[in-house]
Each structure stands twice: as structure tokens, then as C-alpha cells.
Design a protein that fits this description.
The protein is mainly beta. The chain has no helices and 9 strands.
Length: 92
């Protein structure tokens, strides 16, 4: 009748593992050339725009300024390789 509370604790050991790929039958279109506005302040990093699979098509995600999630992190952009689409992620 009542839901029991749950506690989840996760531990990570070893190196970072990149996200798994998504099956994509065609490569994405050519990236859109866009104006990069000035940074909103110190400590921001530009994440370039990219195409991502949305059903049977690709959708454009415009570039944006973001703060690094942790010191010295850098953005690894999404990529398409061997009929697989790999999402972008922050790397140490």
C-alpha cells in the first residue's frame, strides 16, 4: 500500500567510459555555420552546435555557452562512425 523509501549509492572505479552509440542508418548533415556570441563571463566554454538523431531524422542543437562540470573538463562533441551515432560528453 505504501512505497518503501529507497537509497541508491553508486561507485565508479577505473577510467571514464564514453556513452554507447545509437544506431543511425545515415550520417548527419553538414554542421551549420553560426555566429559565436561573446562569452557571458569568465569560466564559460563554447559547446558547438551539432546534429542529433530524432526518430528517423536529425535535429539541430544550436551551440551554447556552458560552465565546465569540473575543473579542466573539456567537451567531446558527438560523432558518427560506422553507422553508429555517439553522443557528446564532458571528459576529464
Amino acid at each position: 500500500m505504501f512505497a518503501a523509501p529507497r537509497v541508491v549509492v553508486g561507485f565508479g572505479f577505473g577510467g571514464y567510459v564514453a556513452p554507447a552509440g545509437v544506431v543511425a542508418y545515415a550520417p548527419p548533415p553538414v554542421p551549420v555555420a553560426a555566429y559565436v556570441p561573446p562569452a557571458p563571463g569568465p569560466g564559460f566554454v563554447w559547446v558547438g552546435g551539432y546534429w542529433y538523431p530524432a526518430g528517423a531524422q536529425y535535429a539541430w542543437h544550436a551551440g551554447y555557452w556552458a560552465r565546465r562540470p569540473y575543473p579542466r573538463a573539456y567537451w567531446v562533441g558527438p560523432r558518427y562512425y560506422g553507422h553508429q551515432y555517439y553522443h557528446g560528453y564532458w571528459r576529464r
